[in-house]
Amino acid sequence: MKSAIFDTDIGIDDAMALLFAHYAEDISLRAITTKYGNASIEDTTRNALLVKEMFGLDAPVYRGASEPISIRLGEGYPSHVHGKNGLGDIQFDEPQLQAETWTAAQALVEISKEAGQKISIIAVGGLTNIAAAIALDPTFSSRVGELIVMGGAFGYNQHRGNVSPVAEANIASDPLAADIVFSSSIPTTIVGLDVTQEVTMDSLFIQSLADNAGQAGQFIKKTNKHYFDFYHTINGKHECPLHDSCAVAYLLNPDLFTTIHQPVRVVTEGIALGQTIHGNGLRTYETDAWDNGARCTICTQVNAPAVLALYQSTLALAGLN
Ligand code: RIB
Ligand code: CA
Known about the structure:
The protein is α/β, with parallel strands linked by helices. The protein has helices at 12-23, 41-55, 79-82, 104-114, 128-136, 169-172, 175-182, 193-196, 203-212, 214-235, 244-252, 304-315, and strands spanning 2-8, 27-34, 61-62, 119-123, 144-150, 188-191, 200-202, 239-241, 257-262, 264-266, 276-278, 296-302.
């Protein structure tokens, strides 16, 4: 059983991933921590509370970062992708639940102390909260068993960026935070666009969830209309990348992915702001910004049908109650 914290800028695919982690029998969700990204921190925190309330999640919600620790690529929020409210502009009653008093960084630090085992962190919205936890408590990294990040892109399968030709949205939302985290001692796996853009769901996938996953399936169908409309405008197809759920799938079954292990740095200024670049270990260089000792596990290939099947079979549990 993995004791996990879900760190999110909860938008449409984040909500799917949160439900995936919630219904997965091998994951015990200890907390949901939020940050800006797909929407404002107010909206992402409200969205986390809404999913918690609608589906009876035990994990408390902790509000996190409202802005990057330094600079970000672009400004505002991608309402064209996730809707103004971050959940496809579906209508819902405001949740009655409230976020806890600790900040996300405080929760990451304190929960890792009391977990009784090294915690797993699923980070699907950028790494501002994780970097803040490292700054808050330098011993935090030693209590993290694994950090699985949906973010970045290294050019495998020809995927390099989605918010610029070379940058992925989560990393670009706080490049410096990502560079700090990837250079830290936290055992980190990067599930980037290289693989998440290979795992695409179509309308049949969504309808199957609507038919078999109870209220969760109905919620996913409703929120995804906006997401499918956006992707249809950019690729002419009625299919979307599953993105954040791939990070949960890696936690559940890493054998579904092919990986390499290399140091990773992030470009923190200029035209390539937010680009993730891995070292190659082929030789020594006169100067080498990657020679910092840290190494990340990077996903380069994925068994996409198996990830989609795992999602369907896990969410089917939602249809049983
Ligand atoms: O680039 C995809 C990522 O950006 C996903 O986490 C999606 O939710 C958005 O946050
Ligand atoms: Ca996200």
